[in-house]
């Protein structure tokens, strides 16, 4: 089994944070709706009695706040759904890597790299004598249309639904590689080959991507590619050790 050096999941942390925020918002929402109803009724009575509209205005403000919190609660629910889907994809890839790579491979799952003012949140990083493999996982469904160089792709989930624009993950992963290269070089690590791989985990996903050089794969394909990759001569063990030592600063 591969040597797992980092196994945290930022999506898990984000989903937990959203869950806590949503629970607080729902509690506040019930309180705000109740108070708004009381103030609006009391304010209407005072207005009809000619005693001013202060309570009415207060009830209206609370009602507006309640609507804002209701919108935020629904948005959180949608975000949690997307995060749950993303976690399923990342967990699937992590499981395959953990179980199919031997102890010659070092794995980082969900690693945050900082280099100067730039950061890269890398889903999976594989370090070995063949180089470093940077894996970006997307659990996207439907038909994906675009090209290797487009800033945006289009996702068609159903024939009767308009397409959803998505940031090009090939460019995203190339930025990850650039940040990683700078991070390693500033730490004194000799040049080491870095290979970006984009992995799709959606069961009913079809790709219509005009592609020349990017590696677009399904989970099992990506694992086989790493296993079958060749590098002659292998990267010296001391270079691999320097890269690992530098990366441990991010754990």
Largest sheet, in brief, is:
6 strands, mixed
**CATH third-tier fold name of the domain at 3-7 and 102-250:** Trna Endonuclease, Chain: A, domain 1
* Quaternary structure annotation: single chain
Q: What would you call the shape?
A: elongated
The average pLDDT is 88
Tally of helical segments: 5
The CATH architecture of the domain at 3-7 and 102-250: 3-Layer(aba) Sandwich
In the CATH scheme, the class of the domain at 3-7 and 102-250 would be Alpha Beta
Helicity level: 40-55%
Q: Between the first and last Cα atoms, what is the distance in angstroms?
A: 20 Å
Strand order of the largest sheet: 1-2-3-4-8-10
Strand content: 25-35%
SSE run:
EHHEEEEEEHEEEHH
**Secondary structure category:** alpha/beta
Rg over CA atoms: 25 Å
User: Residue ranges: pLDDT <50 for 5 or more in a row?
Assistant: none
SS elements, strand count: 10
Give a short synopsis of this structure.
The chain has a domain of 154 residues: Trna Endonuclease, Chain: A, domain 1 (3-Layer(aba) Sandwich), CATH 3.40.1350. Helices cover 50% and strands 25% of the residues.
